[in-house]
Amino acid sequence: MPPGISLHVHLAVIFVVALLACGKSKTSAERSDEQPRAQSEGLVLQLDEGERRVRRNVGKGPFILKVDRQNGGSSDLVMGYEELAAGAEIQLHRHLIADEIIFVHRGRGTVSLNGRASPVSAGATVFIPREVTIGLVNTDTVPLGIAFVFSKPGFEEMMRDNSVLEGQPVPPMTPDERARIQARHKWHTIAGPRP
What we know:
Blueprint: H1 7-23, E1 51-55, E2 62-67, E3 78-84, E4 89-95, E5 100-106, E6 108-113, E7 116-121, E8 125-128, E9 134-138, E10 144-150, H2 155-161, E11 163-165, H3 175-184, E12 189-191
Antiparallel strand pairs: 1-2, 1-11, 2-3, 3-10, 4-9, 4-12, 5-8, 5-10, 6-7, 6-9
């Protein structure tokens, strides 16, 4: 042992080095069950920035996908923003694998969680655990601006299937096409109230 270093300090250094060596976790690229992904440098997006899309469903407005696997490279989170027109609604549905948070940016509405209705207005946060039925109606005369965040990916792909990029032609969706899209995504989202 070098002079001037006590046995306690020497043992503490060895303990810390051993802890660091044992606690080192594998990166995503080192895990055999995961695909490697490029390291993101992060994003800074203003209110109207992101992947701007227009729904093909009649009566539904545009939305912006801000963060997901394609936008920013997040393998876990999904975040977006939309404005519901006066009287518009997000129909009852539930997510099977992901929790969701909705933050009301502006406007007023009524949210339904498992049939329990509550008023919401600017500044409100709505937490929707997976398997909880959610619906939202804009009860105001101005657009209801909401940010939404999912704890796991999946729903954003259904949103893409139901929409086109802003500026592209918006062909109406047929009932058969809507049914095929719902069937393809039933592993994560079920439309309608709980049976």
